[in-house]
Structure prediction request, 448 residues.
Amino acid sequence: MAGYRTRVDPRRIRRLRKGSPGEGPVVYWMSRDQRVRDNWALLYAQDVALAANRPLEVVFCLSRDFMGAPMRHYDFMLRGLTETAAELSKLNVSFRIPLGKPEEKLPLYAKERDPAVLVTDFSPLRHQKGWIESVYESLSCPIDQVDGHNVVPAWETSDKREYAARTIRPKLHRKFQEFLTPFPEMKRHPYGDRETDRVPSTEELRLDGSVLPVEGESPGSAAGELRLRSFIARGLSGYDRDRNDPNLDGTSGLSPYIHFGQISAQTVVREAFLADLPGSDAFVEEAMVRRELAENFCLYEPLYDRYKALPEWGRKALDNHRSDERPWLYGLSELEEAGTHDELWNAAQLSLLRKGRIHGYLRMYWGKMLLLWSPSPEEAFLRALYLNDRYALDGRDPNGYTGVAWCIGGLHDRPWPKRPVFGSVRSMALSGCARKFDVKRYIELFVP
Ligand code: FO1
Prediction:
């Protein structure tokens, strides 16, 4: 609770530091939620600025080497930010883009601007915590954090690590409808004269061009909203039936837009829930329960991207079968180049390389096979994270860390009957896929 009159539910706001207001504008340090519409952190920052008769400024610290992300991801992100910059400008809200490491640039920027209040959005990942700590020393103004990424604010859902969807689901279902509200509109800001920095191009940033942008992607809030509308109109009703068939375009494809915060997960969940179609429940389970379980895992497990964070029972099972014979063993480059004996797995890897996406059901098969074909479970874990973060448009996300931990070590899953190599970690096999969908047809999509 931050004490300012605001349209934003106070339970979404965490005061990180009381401090004393500066003389400058209210500053929203944008990172996770890179949009103007349906952005609780931005709405809150505007309410505080209106109450204090101050200008409103948004700052996005653009680091050219964020966790090794290649050009593919920056292209998606920067094209979305270009749209956001234009929308902020129309609202007479400044948009500043200091280039460099946020932990260095944000304190310098904040010192110069002397914010009345600094508003941040929410990420459970350690780099954002580090960035906030770095700015903590150099600021004396209040710092308020707003969770606009989750339907139910992560700290409101649970104050501890949840162990499965079945433990977090009732906590979310109890609260989500009171949080699943529509969003107020941003107002044209009456104070100050906005300054809008130009969003640099990928060329100017001299990025790692080894993973090129995905052809045919249209990033940004408007495209994300269009995709949501067409999914609600055409995909949602059959979602529960089609979602496990990679040959149909049955999933929403919204995860890169949600990862970069170009659209609001709350808006996605709300539209699907209100549509009240046969696929609504299954979709809300994915877009809210599973996704916010992932946020919960990363929030309360500091080692979310380390093998040792896998459940004890899973690591033990894999350890007991460490010396089982691997039917196939591949080096990282053979996997990366989709050069295995398994045409279905190769097709999934080609989908990742070319489209920056793997269909949800196949993503599990793709991850499970890495366990089978790697020299050790630890190596399989590292390879899954590396390939997912390097090629998947929604990489470097709590969903990805959680998905890899589910595949390799049974996070949020339970023990299954023992299998070689897997032990009691759930196994998957080509035969299982063939029972679910036309494998040959999928392969031909990628391997003519
Ligand atoms: N967030 C930032 O604030 N600054 C960046 O330069 C930045 C680059 C970036 C590149 C790839 C990618 O997948 C995400 C990136 N993000 C960046 C967003 C970041 O992952 C999240 O929005 C939050 O910072 C916390 O997860």
Q: What stands out?
A: The first helix runs from residue 40 to 51. Strands lie at 13-17, 26-29, 56-59, 94-96, 118-120, 143-146. The pocket of FO1 is lined by residues 31-32, 61-63, 66, 69, 73-74, 77, 102, 123, 125, 128, 395-396 (CB under 6 Å).
